[in-house]
Amino acid sequence: MNQDNIAWHVWLGVILSIIPATIVVPIRFYARTHGSEPAGLQADDWLILAALVVNWCMAAIRFNAIVEDGYGVHASQLSTSTVSDFQKSFLAVQQVYFLNAALTKCSILFLYHRIFGISHRFTVILWATGTLVVTYFIICVCVSIFGCVPVSYFWDKAQTGHCINEVEFFRGNGIVNMLLDVLILCLPLPMVWRLDLGLQQKIAVTGIFGLGTFVCLVSIMRIVAFAHSNQNDPTYTTVDTAMWSSIEQSIGIVCTCLPTLRPLLLWIWKWCPGSSRPTPIPLQAMGKEGRDLQQPPRSSPSERRILQSSEELGLKQYSSASGYDHDGHKIEHV
Fold first, then answer.
1. Which of 68, 104, 129, 215 has fewest C-beta within 10 Å?
2. CATH topology (fold) of 8-266
3. Transmembrane stretches, by residue range (predicted)?
């Protein structure tokens, strides 16, 4: 065995992180359709499933690079054609990584919309953030593909051409990606802390949304790993970056799914001997422009969709307080 072969870093990072992601997504789907209060599948569920599929594609490309293209071995020990093939796979995996990150972020945004979409202002913020995520995804794809002139110069340095500083580009991408994660993590916090909940309940709900902090920590490790990247030895010096990138994406999927598993846990709890169903947290939902729905609501059609349950987080909306039933119809008092 080659003592300088560190491909096992990629194997270890990918396998140990993608297995939990592969397990938690089907559990999420089951929880959404067979939990204590089945709600059916919506956009955020399908987006996270797409992210998982893309994550497996990324893993397949990395594994193929190890087996066929000498990933984990110094470039000086490989033929020129092998290094060229690796660079092609590296360019491909970049696009898959960008897509995976965008899908996961959009899934979180749609989850927020499903829970807090009753606020028009918050909905506008969500769509603006989603537009930013998609725009940044397109920019990253274009820069990574057309960062070399001609494009083929990325994998064939024998011809005349030039490239941007790839290490600096990916380091910058990692920083911006992490800042987007922090932004998305912070989005629901003002909504949560304006709710009429006890301090412990607010902290608990904040903790649920704060699970993505783990992704930010892994993103920092990925950024640090870029410091060891060398464009002259890509098959060896990008291994740790690949490892942390794979862990980052898989952990992102897991953290996105965890808040949606509560219905399944309640269903399991209900069947445990001597157990009683936990009391859900009452959610005094915030209305349009942040006004509490305990105030007399407007009778516009847009207000009739305000009562969307948030069972995943244990938040329960009281229809009697808002003046609407669970179907969004106004309660007539006689």
1. 68
2. Rhopdopsin 7-helix transmembrane proteins (1.20.1070)
3. 6-25, 46-67, 92-112, 124-155, 175-193, 205-227
